[in-house]
């Protein structure tokens, strides 16, 4: 019953609330969506944390998406040991890269006085969830080998059953605790997303591509100081 609540009921609660609250926030305060960047307060440590974090996490997410959409092709690819090893090492390297990045970003938030002033409790919650997600993912990769294969065999069907509104938790019941934590924490991240600054990715500035150029008129004499 506990597994049913966590992996068959909770995902729908998360998705419905995330979609509903995101739509409400967009129409009520869409122009206030912002990442609230602290780059002007401190840039050097932000660069060394943000760069590996974004590079690592984007590749890892793309890998998860490919394994979910094309599980059979992943299994065919993994039939050759060399290709399987290349895929596993590449995924682990990107996971470690993201882990280093999130650790540096957390360190910056907690130690830099200027950044710490503008850090909210929600920011800390998000960082903690992201750390747990990446940390558990790296732990799984190190502890349970050939994750790309068993992801295609177990996790992909489970996630597919969620989207088909026919949740089948049998794929997860026998999974280790760390795998269940990784899945549950991913749902938690989706659930808190609408309440955080991360929601700004829903409103990318695409309109700037076709928006007319702005005419800037100086109203003061630039030659005078």
Report on this structure.
The protein is mainly alpha-helical and 225 residues long. It has helices spanning 2-29, 44-69, 71-77, 81-111, 113-117, 121-143, 147-163, 170-173, 177-192. Helix 2 (44-69) runs antiparallel to helix 4.
Which helices and strands appear, and what pairs or packs with what?
Blueprint: H1 2-29, H2 44-69, H3 71-77, H4 81-111, H5 113-117, H6 121-143, H7 147-163, H8 170-173, H9 177-192
Helix pairs in contact: 1-9, 2-3, 2-4, 3-7, 4-6, 6-9
What labels describe this entry?
225 residues; single chain; 9 helices; 70% helix; mainly alpha; Fumarate Reductase Cytochrome B subunit; 0% strand
CATH homologous superfamily heading: Transmembrane di-heme cytochromes, Chain C
CATH architectural arrangement? Up-down Bundle
Q: Summarize the amount of helix as a percent range.
A: 55-70%
Unreliable segments of 5+ consecutive residues? none
Q: Specify Rg, calculated over alpha carbons.
A: 21 Å
Overall shape: it is: globular
At the first level of CATH, the class is Mainly Alpha
Please provide the count of β strands.
0
Number of helices: 9
Write the CATH fold name.
Fumarate Reductase Cytochrome B subunit
Gap from first CA to last CA: 74 Å
Order of helices and strands: HHHHHHHHH
Q: How many individual domains?
A: 1
pLDDT average, as an integer?
Answer: 85
Biggest β-sheet description: none
The gist of it:
The protein is mainly alpha-helical and 225 residues long. It has helices spanning 2-29, 44-69, 71-77, 81-111, 113-117, 121-143, 147-163, 170-173, 177-192.
